[in-house]
């Protein structure tokens, strides 16, 4: 059989080159969607793809597609992730999946592999959620509406329509980015784990079998603003005390209504009026809840709502909440899970089958086509920071596993293989 591997030196150069785009003094990367850093990163990706002889196409949602052997007739095998970052993000979250996809296509093109399915790698727009999250993949999946597009805005009040118009783009054109299921044969995404499981177990590869769903609320508890010194404790309607009680109930709710994969987080709290000598009349906070099972998520939603309602009555408070986002969980395609598992076994790569606790574009693409994911380790589980990193040897192993999986999905002769690699990685 022919032996084919990614050009790892070229992939490593891509990672290092892209990581300098949007990097600021804090060493974090600032390529938020439709920012100058994002624009520069897109230009860089386009130039790399065109230099490799790939066709580049931008759809109405500003997703960038690099294509190999494209004819618009045969369903494509798609890879992808995102180049945008959170403020002060790391060099690999999202970007590694795009760069590995690009390198897989370059390697296959240079090897002259005959394809029965064209290949496509996508840089999805705004996965990190400046305007709500997963915009690009939701456009491809046909999950957007004019109202969603019109109402999307960032934390500073800038609307998606305004941000895209500044680039000369019409946000409503995202409605035309929808792809039919018949146009995509399969979707595969490589991503850093963003958690500590692989690193702590000294394993190089995670085969993802499920991606968590989530709901995110903006909750407001409303009581009575009053003087901190003159209002007796038993005569207060202290909204913050309501939050304190609710926070203490989270563990119980997860134990009674959740699963081992359940997560709940209060990540933002705001007290009003916010004075040291004033009882807070309003407490606003975020609630982020996740699980890999849709029914469990519903049960958790009901339980959190009941708990908030009960404590509000006891404490003479009112409560209300807005749903900021709801993303259903997704089970990866069993056939692709098996393909990745068997391929990793054949290559001598130790691996774990595991769920993803973070949302990904793959989750949305799972509503359109069969979907699989590969994880590589995150050192100490760090992500969304300048400390985010994955050992080079693990990146190489993950890239070659992705290459072999893509060959089996798309090559006319699926007998093309790569050399086997050591099963164990060196501890960083």
TrEMBL record:
By what name is this protein known? Answer: Zn-dependent hydrolase
Organism annotation: Thioalkalivibrio denitrificans
Q: Which family does it belong to?
A: Belongs to the peptidase M20 family.
Where do the Peptidase M20 dimerisation domain residues begin and end?
213-314
* Cofactor annotation comment: Binds 2 Zn(2+) ions per subunit.
Aminoacyl-tRNA synthetase found in the keyword field: no
MF terms in GO: hydrolase activity, acting on carbon-nitrogen (but not peptide) bonds, in linear amidines; metal ion binding
Does the keyword Metal-binding feature in the UniProt annotation?
A: yes
- Cofactor(s) of this protein: Zn(2+)
Residues annotated for Zn(2+) 2 binding in this entry? 93, 128, 384
Binding site residues for Zn(2+) 1: 82, 93, 191
Q: Which of UniProt's keywords are assigned here? A: Hydrolase, Metal-binding, Zinc
